[in-house]
Amino acid sequence: QWFAEDWHREIVRKWREAGVRMADEGSDEDEGPRPLEGLTVVVTGTLTGHTRDGAKEALQALGAKVAGSVSKKTAFVVVGDNPGSKYDKAMQLKVPVLDEDGF
């Protein structure tokens, strides 16, 4: 049912292109690489290619913890259009910022 949504299939396609290996649910394979394991990430602004929930799910699938606010422990911030105060806080704390394309 999850794959009935076009944008869900698009996320999976992009993951595969990026080298993410999907294991069947319930299989004995490991989860595969989780390159963002242990990193805290914040998403802010309006994303054009993803919903906020879709971006959060993608980041969590790669091992990231998605937070609601920026702190000095934030690894990076994904910034869409009209980011507001989270972007300002990232700049103040010198936290790396990725635009949506970089994400």
UniProtKB/TrEMBL annotation:
Pfam families attached to this UniProt entry: BRCT
Residue stretches spanning the membrane: none
Keywords: DNA damage, DNA repair, DNA replication, Ligase, Magnesium, Metal-binding, NAD, Zinc
A biological-process GO annotation: DNA repair
Phylogenetic placement of the source organism: Bacteria, Bacillati, Actinomycetota, Actinomycetes, Kitasatosporales
Domain of life: Bacteria
GO molecular function, one term: metal ion binding
Protein's UniProt name: NAD-dependent DNA ligase LigA
InterPro entries noted in UniProt: BRCT_dom (IPR001357), BRCT_dom_sf (IPR036420)
Domain annotation BRCT: ranges: 31-103
